[in-house]
Amino acid sequence: MQDPPALYLDEDVDVSVAARLRVSGFDVLTTRDAGNLGRRDEEQLDFAARSGRVFVTHNIQDFMRLAQRWASEGRSHAGIIYVSFEPPGTLCAWLEDFFRLYPRREDTQNCTFCLPVSSAG
After folding, report:
1. For labeling, which of 8, 45, 84, 94 is most exposed (least CB within 10 Å)?
2. Quick one: what percent of the chain has pLDDT higher than 90?
3. 29: helix, strand or coil
4. Would 103 be classed as within a structural domain?
5. Within 13 Å and on the Cβ side, how many CA atoms surround 72?
6. DSSP secondary structure, 32-91, as one string
C-alpha cells in the first residue's frame, strides 16, 4: 500500500484503534493526542481539515449535517469516514481494506464514506 492518508479519530472511536493502525503503518492522531477532547464537532472537523487528516467518527448524524453545510459553503476537508460501533480489530480491518481501495489523499478529499459498505444480496 502507498502512504495512506493521515487519520484523525473522533473521541467516540476507541483509542486502541489508533494504536493498531499505527502498527500497520498509518499516521493516526486521536482527539486525546491532539488535546481536543470535548471540543465541538465543527472544531474537530476544522482541526482535521487544517491538519490534512481524514476524520473518522461514529457520529454520522451530526457530521453528515456538518459535511453538507461545509459543501454548501465551499469549505474543504480531507474526507470523513463514518464507522459503525464494532470491536477495534474489526474497525481496523475495515479501514485497512478501505485504504487499499482508496490509497491516495485525493481519493478522499471532500468525500464522505460509511463503513462497512455492504452490497444488497
Report:
1. 84
2. 80
3. strand
4. yes
5. 6
6. TTTT-TT--HHHHHHHHHHHT-EEEES-HHHHHHHHHHHHHHT---S-EEEE-S--HHHH
- Helix or strand or coil: residue 28? strand
pTM given for the model: 0.91
Establish if 97 belongs to a structural domain.
yes
Q: Give helix 60-73 / helix 41-51 axis angle, nearest 10°.
A: 60
Contact 51, 6 (CB under 8 A): yes
Quote the cell numbers at residue 37: 477532547
Residue range 88-97, pLDDT digits in tens: 999 999 999 9
Pick from 94, 102, 98, 9: nearest CA to 56: 9
Q: Is 1 inside any structural domain?
A: no
**Structural domain for 103, as ranges:** 7-115
Cis? peptide before 116, omega within 30° of 0:
yes
Structural domain total, the chain: 1
